[in-house]
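Reader question, answered in our methods column.
A reader sent in the components of a multi-part assembly and asked whether the whole thing could be modeled at once rather than chain by chain. We filled in our standard form and ran it. Here is what they sent:
COMPLEX SIZE: two components
ENTRIES:
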Amino acid sequence: MSLEKDAKTGKFLEAAKACHNICRLHGVHLLINDRIDVALACDADGVHIGQSDMPVAVVRTLLGPEKIIGVSCKTPEQAQQAWVDGADYIGCGGVYPTNTKVNNLTVGLEGLKTVCLASKLPVVAIGGISVSNARSVMELGVPNLKGVAVVSAMFDTESILVETQKLHAVLMETRAVVK
Amino acid sequence: MSLEKDAKTGKFLEAAKACHNICRLHGVHLLINDRIDVALACDADGVHIGQSDMPVAVVRTLLGPEKIIGVSCKTPEQAQQAWVDGADYIGCGGVYPTNTKVNNLTVGLEGLKTVCLASKLPVVAIGGISVSNARSVMELGVPNLKGVAVVSAMFDTESILVETQKLHAVLMETRAVVK
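And here is the structure of the entire assembly that came back:
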């Protein structure tokens, strides 16, 4: 739900509920960006939070033990802390430059690898990843790198369906699709 | 906490906690604007929500029966709905034009009176209210008009303390201070 960052809470919740209904039909988890209240209100499967959002330990208290919590991490220290605080996975990036997020530090493939090696949690790579470079990311060869997160690669394209199918095919080939 | 609308969640929560500590020392309730998650995380006394925020009934479910829920209402219909949905009070305005909120419809003293007469809940007047016009508002003569909410009148002044004391004096004179 990263596109909803500036939405009013009411509209955000409506969009979240609509997404959740679609996700349920396909057995897919829905995680809400930042807004724990919206996640609670639509009974989402979890949240994704950044380093400037609510602390992970507080989020865990609000959501209980069952919900999924993901945390954006750029460094080994942040990855370690996310694990200590009770996160379920981390997102690491930007792997490549991206227009989706302004002022976002690019960590590169080396930065991603460093964080993966330091992390006790599964890692999802994010930032400028598309069909053209997803293979390079997934072939880094670190076992806890479990997948990629994309925004532009799907939504800044002519056909979301076609691009998603292409990306899915690449990920299937690398046998590292997020489970 | 209306000044925190654009703050990142982490900073918002820190500010809310700091405010809550000060409020507790003085026996004053802290209500958080819009963000139910921040209210939950700092155990605030309640929230204030707008018509574009999360629905009151959902907020009541998330916060439980004890917390205070206030709702911004501009019409008798909204006031009625807020009561049905389990709100504790309503805020009505803008009574006068204000720079605090952009694109905010001014309802005037007549609009405020109409809403007060239709409301089963206590009403707090808001919007462009200051020392110079608070008396006109409080002397509308509707028993459930219980007080005023101010932002600019305190914070766009040289001395917040002095302006607050002046406003408090006016409200005490009208014997309609919020309890």
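What stands out: The mean pLDDT of chain A is 92. Chain A touches chain B through 22 residues (CB under 8 Å).
Send us your own complexes using the same form.
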